[in-house]
Specification:
This protein folds into three domains: 1-234, no CATH class; 236-427, no CATH class; 527-568, no CATH class. Strand 1 and strand 2 (42-51) form a beta hairpin. The chain is built from 25 helices and two strands. The model has no long low-confidence stretch (mean pLDDT 87). It has 568 residues and is mainly alpha-helical.
Length: 568
């Protein structure tokens, strides 16, 4: 089954990429409407929007999915329910497709809810207490966004249609559109895990690694950014200012948190959060094409980064703590080589694919007339990205091996390496290729020498900080209480997991327990739904129709024949 989906998705991906370039060159947009039904002068349509953006994004999603499915063939080898896993991944990808091609809020909701539901099934895949907790946190955080989207659908009734692409620019100053855009931003913030909904993203690491590679590169978390890219024409200035503040804070917070984290997958998850903040903030600063460009490039190297991490975890008997690793460059040279390339791309090292999007974003920001806070937090966040990447490299790839002295660590997993090798070419070259393709007019950048090399300067400072942080291995005995509290506060994403779990549901649950024991005492069960159902079941005379099916059927048949004979 893995191989069938791999071939299917890969073939579709290549075709869609060629088609998107054709659409891009000739500036084509196709809008397909399928009429379903009409209710009170409101038409229910199934609408498909095909332009270069949706086709290119679909191509990337399918390409990454094909490689992840091929990789899963070996990663999930011992699993009894591997076929179910592959079908869930395929459903996940199809939900994303539905979301990408929809210019209509109703059909977007189908894809949006599909993503939420299937992501819950995938996060709880291993079925232990940690998975169930993470799945519930993921599902409930995303429900807030789903409700916001439902409210936006209700408000769009004012326009007589849910095809939002027609109204974005022309109805920009209308009260309804302002409200809809606020609700859409709220929905996107929950799906893309911006502050204060960030805690579900690292928790979702309870899913199998191939799922993490898919979720964190091109599907679930990018859905929010993609929705904002489609809606960006309708945003007011105040909303953009709010969004740029929140997303820059998310970028800073996740960069800081990753420097204090020891779980390999969580470090990469926090780096995804940081990059999502970067995409959102550049979108809020007014350049949606740059945000889309970084979305595509980031999807490639983040998928490969997770696949490398999965290979390492697989070999280390499912241990994820980076303190157990070290010296892996000797035992897993190819995986470590790929990991390093992805890390360099993530940091924005010159002439890797990430450099072309990240450097352009930072230079575009430097050209803008914007306040000092945004400028400083952007460059600090770039430094932090390099810092945690370098720290990760120091812990995992260099130094002494800290795991079992009797081990069998080797790169014997041929299928996993092939799946990873399918991505490496794009991770290195896609930045320059797509920057030539997507931007027909080059960006005019005119900066002073210091501002021009500021990115490189921050990369070098970040490398030095990361090295110092890694060298200073924290022993909690040596830390004073104040430093320990600060370290735990930063690594716990500013206590956000506590706030979004215990902070929200602890008191309502306590109140429910108090009500149950003191007031209710089981009477609601008697007077409520269950007893009502039993009472109705006993008193309903129509119930006898379903007691003996054959007899009733024959009796009705005789009645029908008598009716025919009497009338004709």
């Amino acid at each position: 089954m893995c191989f069938i989906y791999f071939i299917l998705f890969l073939a579709m991906s290549m075709n869609l990429l060629m088609l998107s370039l054709y659409y891009l060159v000739f500036n084509l947009t196709y809008f397909l409407e399928f009429f379903l039904f009409s209710l009170n002068s409101t038409n229910f349509m199934f609408v498909i929007l095909l332009d270069w953006m949706s086709l290119m994004f679909m191509s990337f999603v399918l390409f990454i999915s094909s490689m992840v499915i091929y990789y899963s063939e070996e990663y999930m080898m011992g699993d009894l329910y591997k076929n179910r896993f592959i079908l869930l991944v395929a459903m996940f990808v199809l939900s994303m497709m539905m979301l990408i091609i929809s210019p209509n809020l109703i059909s977007i909701l189908l894809g949006w809810d599909g993503l939420g539901l299937v992501s819950y099934c995938l996060v709880i895949y291993y079925q232990n207490i940690k998975s169930f907790s993470a799945g519930m946190l993921t599902a409930l955080s995303n429900r807030i966004g789903d409700v916001a989207l439902l409210m936006a659908i209700a408000w769009m009734l004012n326009f007589g249609s849910w095809n939002f692409v027609f109204y974005l620019d022309i109805m920009k100053d209308d009260f309804s559109m302002k409200l809809i855009s606020i609700l859409v931003v709220l929905a996107a913030m929950t799906k893309s895990a911006q502050i204060p909904f960030s805690s579900w993203l690292p928790a979702a690491m309870a899913a199998p690694t191939p799922v993490s590679a898919l979720v964190h590169s091109s599907t679930l978390v990018t859905a929010g950014v993609y929705l904002l890219i489609r809606f960006n024409f309708a945003f007011s200035e105040n909303l953009m200012f709010l969004l740029v503040f929140i997303s820059s804070m998310t970028m800073f917070m996740s960069g800081l948190g990753a420097n204090f984290e020891f779980d390999l997958k969580k470090i990469i998850a926090l780096s995804t959060l940081s990059q999502l903040g970067l995409m959102m903030s550049i979108l809020a600063l007014g350049d949606y094409k740059l945000a889309f460009f970084h979305l595509l490039i980031h999807a490639l190297f983040k998928a490969l980064l997770f696949m490398c991490a999965g290979n390492i975890i697989h070999n280390l008997m499912n241990y994820q703590d980076i303190r157990f690793m070290g010296g892996l460059i000797k035992q897993m040279p190819l995986t470590c080589c790929y990991l390093n390339i992805c890390n360099f791309s993530l940091c924005g090292l010159p002439f890797m694919s990430g450099f072309y999007s990240k450097d352009l974003i930072v230079e575009f920001l430097s050209m803008n007339y914007i306040n000092m806070y945004i400028y400083v937090i952007f460059f600090i966040s770039i430094g932090l990205t390099v810092s945690y990447s370098f720290r990760l490299t120091y812990y995992t790839l260099t130094g002494d091996f800290n795991f079992l002295s009797l081990n069998m660590i080797s790169e014997s997993s041929v299928l996993m390496l092939k799946g990873m090798s399918g991505l490496i070419f794009f991770v290195i070259f896609s930045g320059s290729m797509f920057s030539w393709m997507m931007f027909s007019t080059p960006y005019y950048i005119c900066l002073s020498f210091l501002m021009k090399i500021m990115t490189l300067l921050m990369i070098l400072i970040g490398m030095w900080i990361g090295y110092e942080l890694a060298k200073f291995k924290i022993s909690y005995q040596s830390l004073s209480l104040r430093n320990l509290t600060l370290s735990v506060f930063l690594s716990l994403m500013w206590n956000m997991p506590y706030i979004s779990t215990l902070g929200i549901n602890f008191y309502p649950l306590m109140l429910g327990k108090f009500y149950m024991k003191i007031f209710d005492q089981g009477w609601f069960e008697f007077y409520g739904s269950q007893n009502l159902y039993n009472l109705l079941k006993k008193t309903m005379f129509l119930q006898m129709l379903s007691i003996n099916h054959m007899k009733i059927y024959l009796m009705f048949l005789i009645f029908w024949i008598m009716f025919l004979l009497l009338n004709f």
